[in-house]
Amino acid sequence: MNKTEFSDALRRALGKLPSYEVEQSIAFYLEMIDDRMEDGMSEADAVAALGPVGAIAAQIIAETPVIPKAIAKANTGSRTLNVVLLVVFSPIWVPVALALVMAALMVYLSIWMVVVALWATVATLLLCGPIGIVGLVWCLATGYPLTAAWLLGCGLAAAGTGLFALFGVLAASKGLVQLTHSFARWIKGLFVKKVRGSGQAAPPYAPAPGSPAVPVAAGAPPAPPYGAPYPGAAYAASPCPDAYPPATAQGTIPFPTAPNAPAAGNPAPEGAQSHDHRA
Fold it and tell me: Residues 242-260: pLDDT tens digits?
């Protein structure tokens, strides 16, 4: 199967999905085929490495957002019939759509109203300090010293409470703002598909048919640049002409013996030992 046959089969398998979604997905996989062909694979092998067209189409349909998927299922394939059905069922779907939009908007605004209310409370408590000082001066000027002391004490107590509440409200505001962002992303995800980027792993490269693939030992990553040429493939590391001698059975490389070194098992002279200690 070549690229043209693959794109035609994928377009048929995607069926009633929106045309922009179909073309975007086909362009994504055609780019993957071109990348593999640049790496040395033939066109047929690059297409075969993607896997069955049905599995690819099922994955694309599963990743399609809820609203476009529902619209695609309701698509009859006839533009005229689609318009007629929209008009006929408008007394049902228009109020439902407006209710859902208003509900989402109210939830979003409610979260922000909580943030505004918290900061308004903190600001009011902090203002009680200056208000208490003003009340103190006014009551002393009019001859009410007990009332002046009571106003000053209440004002300072409220201002202190506001200072302590300031840190908690700051943390709560950050959490609520993050909640609004998460809620907005969730609403957007109902309509817009997540853009394919570096965060999403591409399908694994399959070895070309007939190519000898020797699996690497379990748990041992391939050593670059002689490891697997494609992500997900497992090939044995190719030997390097100038590589070090192979490891021994214990997994270590014997260290060359220094000149005049004592044989294994014989103790070193006393002078050499003291020299080692000084080093």
Answer: 444 444 444 444 545 555 5
